[in-house]
Specification:
The complex is a heterodimer. By secondary structure, chain A is of the alpha+beta class. Chain A folds into 2 domains: 5-107, no CATH class; 111-300, Rossmann fold (3-Layer(aba) Sandwich), CATH 3.40.50. Chain A has 7 helices and 19 strands. Chain A starts with a strand and ends with a helix. By secondary structure, chain B is of the alpha/beta class. A 4-stranded parallel sheet of chain B has the order 2-1-3-6, with helices on both faces. Chain B is built from 12 helices and 6 strands. Classes of the chains: A alpha+beta, B alpha/beta. Chains A and B meet through helix 1, helix 3 and helix 5 of A and helix 2 and helix 3 of B.
Amino acid sequence: MKQRYLYHAYGLIILSEILLTELKEIGEGEPDVVIRMDIVPESIEDAVVKMVRFEASPGAFLLKVDGIAKYYVREGKEIIVEPYNVAREEDIRLFLLGSAFAALLHQRQTLVLHGSAIGVNGKGVIFTGVSGAGKSTLAAALFQKGYPILTDDVCAVKISAQEAPQIIPGFPRLKLWADAAEKLGTDVSNLPRIREKLDKYGLKVENAFQQQPLPVKSIYILSNQDQEGVSITPLAKLDKLEALIKNTYRFRFLEGQGGKPRHFQQCVEVAKAAEIYQVVRPRGGFCLDELVSALEKELREL
Amino acid sequence: MKGIVWLASYPKSGNTWFRTLISNLMSNSQEPVDINQLSTGGIASGRERFDELTGIESGDLTFEEIDQLRPEVYTYLAQTVEKPLFVKVHDAYTYLSDGRPLLPSENCKAIYLIRNPLDVAISFSHHLRRDLDTTIERMGDSTFCFCAKPDRMHNQLRQQLLTWSEHVESWVDAPGLDIHVVRYEDLKAQPLETFTQAISFLGLTVEEEQIQRAVEFSDFKVLKKQEEEKGFKEKPPGMPAFFREGKTGGWKERLNEEQVEKIINQHRRVMERFHYL
């Protein structure tokens, strides 16, 4: 019999044939999701969208990462992984925990934002923005200041009729580039690289991981511009919705899954419940300290 | 036409200027377009489009892995856009190890903007915030790239520029690529004629009056004034202004003899070919 592992992540109990060292292992439970190794089809029949490396139809999603693995995500319940021959384990895990998990969450009708999240006095705060905006670096800086971490990069928000939108904890790891680690004074020599050939490291934050969901209180959209100093400006009501749609993780995954109307409604709910701010820092040089102190001033008032 | 129009150039050779011409032409409005709302199809090295269309986070890939996927991203785009998509690009026209061009030519056309490297050097040194000697060094460096530090996430994908001469030749001599060369100096001296030729190369059907207005609205003074009033979001940090002088022949006052000689020695053949010598 194959070795199997039981984990908890994104509010789900996951039974996996693949060892996922980034996730929290648990003793027992009825699995919501099964991850197994098997043959994956080359393509999805009747795919609604067919992009460069992924395709999707309602309840089915296929991603191919050349040289690493094919991931087939079904009905929000199952991820089938077929690694390529030479693939390294950490590489297989990386795209499984990134794009494949995001597709799974989309299928489970969870709102998935592209961002990192922390807890502040029992409330959830999300940092979003385009790739390279500094989401993970900022989360890591605030982790150093003692704020609990909810998630890095893939941020699941649960919308229900019963309660305000909740950030569902992901798993306790931050991804840090070498230059960001240096700015944070974090020694990377003892940290695992997330991939052999990348100068990017996995920082475990188990001790500071927020295990319970937190209501979404504020969302900060990070960007940079040619300006002096850091500015933090609340978004007008109408702009909030557009910002949420724009910062949805892999919006195109939704197109094939037929989830766009629901997604829109979910964004409306979050826009109602949360304040959204545009955070602009000067371009050229991250000025992390300035950004952190400007944000901490805001966070203290939450 | 449909598909991609590559707006290709070495940096500081009039790419943004040409994009304002195209934006004004396409908007066909009675007012100049806002330089902060240039509605062209982004830059080829943009990270977001890559991530969206591949479904893979480019920040988790090596430079080589990204390059392997880039041709397919553009092929997909070129096949699916309904209108011509004007994509700015500073990458040189290079090929992957399996022979595929990084930037496909099928369903694509290219406008190549070229500018006297003596003037490029001055503008580029402001852009890079480096002295002229360093800048000239880079313009002669075959390994020169943008966004290539391996220890961080750059806001764009890595771009190989090659030397100034290699950049020019990689594009204008690319086999099978439908390309039209626009000299910055011609666009400056005879904007209407030069832009009209580019438009007819692209096969766009527009009224002469429309072209005329686009040229007026993209006059350097108009752009500079807009920047003074509202700033320009594409301006790199540390530069006082993006639309600085926009003139030709400024090198005569700024470069010393040695610098001129160095540029000419490095780029003589291509400079002669495009009548800069």
